[in-house]
Write a structure and sequence with these properties.
The chain is α+β, with helices and mostly antiparallel strands and 197 residues long. Helices cover 16% and strands 58% of the residues.
Length: 197
């Protein structure tokens, strides 16, 4: 009896999964494709005096109706940090890779979760006060990761708008006192226009 119940449960579960996957595929306007497009965003680190807008390009590859991957490259300039009586301005060139899980609610709306990692080429420009103390402009590579959520709004099977929020976990990979206490963790909002092929 127990074996029969296990087989029956597995059978019902398999049918339910197959039906829900088929339903998701029917609802998804975009699947099994690759696309490219521009993206715009806004990034505000927790310790930065002000946030700033940035731009870049992104590529997405969709595997069926619910899974996808994303790669992007951006330029983020001008975040300034006040540290111990002087300031340092940072600019980033992040190259990121993300995994996406979609929930295709309808042909025109698909919310998703996103998680990924990135390599951040970071340029440090010190103020005159810091330069007088011996600090010199420099650059480094920092690794970070992000978690977030968003939504894709397909206009057709070949074009979509996506908007999302990501929390960035990123700290400077420097041991010297010039960035002591600096925190690059922060909020990132992005919007992209995708052209799928």
């Amino acid at each position: 009896m127990k074996k029969t119940l296990t087989i029956l449960t597995f059978f019902i579960g398999s049918i339910t999964f197959a039906a829900s996957a088929q339903t998701a595929a029917d609802r998804a306007a975009i699947q099994n494709t690759i696309g490219f497009g521009p993206r715009l965003g806004y990034y505000k680190a927790l310790d930065a005096d002000e946030g700033n807008f940035h731009g870049g390009i992104q590529a997405r590859m969709r595997f069926g109706a619910v899974a996808g991957i994303e790669g992007s490259i951006e330029y983020r300039a001008g975040q300034e940090y006040g540290i111990a009586g002087y300031s340092v301005k940072t600019s980033f060139v992040p190259v990121t890779a993300s995994f996406l899980i979609f929930a295709p609610i309808s042909e025109i709306f698909a919310p998703y979760g996103v998680a990924g990692i990135g390599a951040y080429h970071t340029r440090y420009t010190f103020s005159e006060a810091a330069s007088a103390l011996g600090f010199e402009d420099d650059s480094s590579f920092n690794m970070g990761y992000h978690l977030g959520f968003g939504a894709e709004f397909p206009f057709s099977s070949n074009m979509a708008l996506n908007v999302d929020y990501r929390y960035l976990f990123l700290n400077p990979d420097r041991d010297d006192e010039s960035l002591e206490g600096a925190n690059f963790n922060g909020n990132v909002f992005t919007a992209g226009l995708m052209f799928y092929f």
